[in-house]
Write a structure and sequence with these properties.
- With 220 residues, the protein is α/β, with parallel strands linked by helices.
- It has a domain at 61-213: Rossmann fold (3-Layer(aba) Sandwich).
- The protein has helices at 8-18, 22-39, 53-62, 85-91, 107-120, 131-138, 152-159, 177-184; strands at residues 73-77, 99-103, 124-127, 143-147, 168-173, 188-196, 204-213.
- It has a seven-stranded mixed β-sheet, sandwiched between helices.
- α1 (8-18) packs parallel to α3 and α7 crosses α8.
- The longest helix has 18 residues, at 22-39.
- The protein is globular, with a radius of gyration of 17 Å.
- The termini are far apart.
Length: 220
């Protein structure tokens, strides 16, 4: 796979948006170095996005922390190349009792996640299983996250078993989120709000505060 470089100006822009500690920046730089090595062998993200790795992927992930500043336990569904789950674990590295569960069924991507967790000494656990089989193992969490994983009706099916009382969902979505919400409302009762992404004006963060299956309509 052809090597593509990150952009130093993009890094600077992302760090201005994120406002993270020096220690977190050091870990993020180490993460990027490891990420680019693995990207050559395993396509973790689309190669065309690498020049904007910092803003499009890293800062995009970090913005979720501002929406749940007191959260310490996270589950990231379909972690892939580590966005947002691995980035959240990097930012929470020095937070007491923090843990991020990274669920990724692709064995190659799960291997990358494990290597990042090991190398950076992150408060994270990788589950190389399907989402449906992990929910009961994890127990209650503060936040469920997902990014570019599935249309909202399917995503809610995967997230709902983890959405206990006071658990919130933070789902990074694109410009079609209104259509997805309309479709999801046919099967789900959802209490949620949309927040404009700080890194992409066309992107949205769906903050789900409560979700449950809508009762089936009886046949006339």
């Amino acid at each position: 796979m052809k090597s593509v470089s990150v952009n130093s100006e993009d890094r600077a822009a992302a760090l201005r948006m994120a406002g993270v500690s020096h220690e977190t920046v050091v870990r993020l730089d180490q993460f990027v170095e490891l990420f680019l090595r693995w990207q050559k062998a395993v396509q973790l993200v689309a190669p065309s996005t690498i020049p904007k790795l910092w803003t499009r992927h890293i800062a995009d992930s970090l913005q979720l922390l501002n929406l749940a500043p007191d959260a310490r336990t996270f589950v990231d569904l379909g972690s892939g190349g580590g966005f947002p789950g691995l980035i959240l674990a990097i930012a929470l590295c020095d937070a007491q009792d923090a843990i991020v569960h990274l669920i990724e069924s692709d064995s190659r991507k799960a291997a990358f996640l494990r290597e990042a967790v090991r190398m950076l000494h992150l408060p994270a656990k990788v589950h190389a299983e399907r989402i449906e089989s992990v929910a009961k193992q994890i127990g209650r969490v503060d936040v469920v996250t997902a990014r570019a994983l599935a249309p909202l009706p399917r995503l809610l099916e995967m997230a709902e078993p983890l959405m206990a009382d006071k658990t919130v969902g933070l789902f990074l979505k694109g410009q079609d989120v209104d259509r997805e919400l309309t479709e999801a409302a046919k099967s789900w009762n959802i209490r949620a709000k949309l927040i404009t992404s700080r890194t992409d004006p066309s992107g949205k963060i769906l903050l789900v505060q409560d979700v449950n299956k809508a009762p089936r309509k009886s046949e006339p």
